[in-house]
């Protein structure tokens, strides 16, 4: 007999993957097709056979090789599936049914969890934008005139969003002045990614208050960046090849419900944003990030110090009538806090020191943790990647 | 009996939709699912039943609601399907089989022909980039330092690529200084779009010479642009909401083979581009464009005056190792020729006259024509759209 609300899964209770977390992912066992699972402790629950046995209406969504079908079902199904899974994992009487479908993480391969529709990247940390402004425009204003009026963003390449663990081949390209070769300033951007479940209609903005109706969950996100390629190409249409070679996301998508205890007031916005950006009651997320390079924690960016909120980014993205699709992904932009040990890119961490950029063989891991709804901490999906040499 | 190489389809021989054209599209009859057809004269050949009757290996690709499955088959299949269709439409002995599957255009609905993967937009017309530079930076150099070293480009929103005929709702958003309201400077960009069929591997650039191995065909493309929204938001990460509300493409995708007689030398490139951009033998396309506003031809941009070639754009897009997917779409950027009556945007046509921008109810159509392989002219798919008022 377990305490109500406590999981019977061995080793999971009190861990960072307890029943207050329950992130979704796509896994496979050797020789089998990938399908949807949920993480509990150090195991994956294979949802498809359990859902079929319990004749769940939406059992087919767990047989897919991405979370998109589940995400497309919308908020009510997302919430009721979570309640159902919580019951399975806390009610001892479900144990005989469920236990045979708990697979050790060590026995599975994990895959890209979503089929990415459009990928947008924002630039929502004031500290990051200020740092970058100071580095690139030492004599000008650190922030450009539009920065406090709207969450600046742009579209990235969705076809090169890869799963955590995918090796990153150093990109080759043009550098300032038209020189050509492998990037010499390969960088990371420690971000949080938001995944859209429920689509919206073309021509109809998604209001600020509809965030949780549309956003399914969050992923860890590393927006790999070649600073030298980016510096040469980016005027006047923005970053292109300096970013499009790879963006890594975590295997696990943490549903928005798991972050219910993580909402906090933003640091404050001045000037007050326009009404469509929901001024006055803007909430950020109290998520701690660790940037780990070759095993050493080099920085601890706090997501709660972001200037623009996740809901403001979504409202802005659609205010012109742009529609949302299931699988749309938007990144927060690099997360940097006010102190030097809270910076989310090597450009800022090194601040002019060229040796701060990535060398071949370097491994970067981003880790994320937040308050859980049961008083403890939950871990969000981590994102890792190793740099491979440029191709000859 | 018809002359060899002449179609037996009534009214098609000698038209701009003769057998030297044969664009693909997705059509439906009332109450039926959309599927793949090919245009001949003023009819659509319903390919699925004919391919099934002839037991074509790839007959299933014609039953899909987009061209992606056909395009994914690659260059050899693309070429052999074209040869097969040409045979069907020129050989009198096929007439009994084929004729029942020729549907008048008036009896069908046409749909978005492709499932768009990533959408990239270039800026490859020197005349357009120079005009825009002169309008926005009258005291600076018209072209930025990188412009003649690489085809400048950026990612757009693939989820809002819509089929010709889709009404365009005037977007609302922030304008310079943070004012808010419907765009007062709604514009067009007359472009050509290139559609990728054969994918490429992450980490492996697509060489300049592999253009026809990867590109399936071309579409007409209007990259609707809200100049006031764009002007305020675009530093430093490029255009976003000023573009992402809608991009229209033609119903018909003209296969690259139909443009075999349209290749022409580019005007010339100085400085010589880097080797990966295939300097020296760069070919453009001799495609004439007409910009029609409310029934009047207001401009005739010539695609042969572009600075960067379609193959250079593709080589640049992938030089950093970015992979291609079936359904990737890249636009040439606004096509503008050297003379005032060859400009591809209202910004340039009006040159400071605010009344040149689009009013609610305005209808814009882009028409395209090129030399065909039989000595005549072929029409590429046209793109049209009517402006609807901003939503309240």
Structural account:
The structure is a homodimer of 392-residue chains. Chain A has 392 residues and is of the alpha+beta class. Chain A has helices at 47-53, 68-72, 75-90, 95-98, 126-136, 211-214, 227-233, 310-318, 346-350, and strands at 24-28, 35-40, 43-46, 102-104, 109-110, 119-122, 153-156, 161-163, 168-169, 172-175, 179-182, 186-187, 190-196, 215-222, 225-226, 247-249, 254-255, 263-265, 283-285, 288-293, 296-299, 329-331, 363-371, 377-388. In chain A, β10 and β11 (179-182) form a beta hairpin. At the A-B interface, β7, β10 and α7 of A face β7, β10 and α7 of B. Chains A, B: Pfam families: FAA_hydrolase, FAA_hydrolase_N. Chains A, B: Keywords: Calcium, Hydrolase, Magnesium, Metal-binding, Phenylalanine catabolism, Tyrosine catabolism. Chains A, B: Residues 21-113 form the Fumarylacetoacetase N-terminal domain. Chains A, B: It is an enzyme of class 3 (hydrolase).
């Amino acid at each position: 007999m377990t305490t109500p609300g406590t999981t019977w899964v061995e080793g999971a209770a009190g861990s960072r993957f307890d029943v207050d977390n329950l992130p979704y992912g796509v896994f496979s066992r050797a020789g089998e097709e990938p399908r949807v699972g949920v993480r509990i402790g150090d195991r994956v629950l294979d949802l498809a056979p359990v859902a079929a046995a319990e004749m769940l209406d939406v059992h087919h969504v767990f047989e897919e090789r991405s979370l998109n079908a589940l995400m497309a079902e919308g908020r009510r199904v997302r919430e009721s599936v979570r309640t159902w899974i919580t019951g399975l994992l806390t009610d001892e009487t479900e144990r005989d049914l469920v236990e045979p479908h708990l697979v050790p993480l060590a026995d599975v391969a994990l895959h890209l969890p979503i089929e990415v529709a459009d990928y947008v990247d924002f630039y929502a940390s004031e500290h990051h934008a200020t740092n970058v402004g100071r580095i690139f425009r030492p004599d000008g204003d650190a922030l450009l005139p539009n920065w406090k009026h709207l969450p600046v963003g742009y579209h990235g390449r969705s076809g090169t969003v890869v799963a955590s663990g995918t090796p990153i081949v150093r990109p080759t390209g043009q550098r300032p002045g038209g020189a050509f070769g492998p990037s010499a300033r390969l960088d990371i951007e420690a971000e949080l990614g938001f995944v859209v479940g429920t689509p919206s209609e073309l021509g109809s903005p998604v209001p600020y208050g509809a965030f949780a109706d549309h956003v399914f969950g969050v992923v860890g996100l590393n927006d790999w960046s070649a600073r030298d390629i980016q510096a040469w190409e980016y005027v006047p249409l923005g970053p292109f090849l300096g970013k499009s070679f790879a963006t890594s996301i975590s295997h696990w998508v943490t549903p928005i419900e798991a972050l219910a205890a993580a909402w906090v007031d933003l640091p404050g916005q001045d000037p007050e944003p326009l009404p469509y950006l929901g001024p006055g009651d803007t909430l950020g997320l109290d998520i701690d990030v660790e940037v780990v390079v070759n095993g050493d924690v080099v920085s601890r960016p706090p997501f709660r110090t972001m200037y623009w909120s996740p809901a403001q980014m979504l409202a802005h993205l659609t205010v012109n009538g742009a529609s949302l699709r299931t699988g749309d992904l938007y990144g927060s932009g690099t997360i940097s806090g006010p102190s030097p040990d809270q910076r989310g890119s090597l450009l800022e961490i090194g601040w002019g020191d060229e040796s701060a950029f990535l060398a071949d063989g370097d491994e970067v891991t981003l880790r994320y943790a937040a308050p859980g709804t049961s008083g403890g901490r939950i871990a969000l999906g981590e994102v890792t990647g190793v740099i491979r040499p440029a191709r000859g």
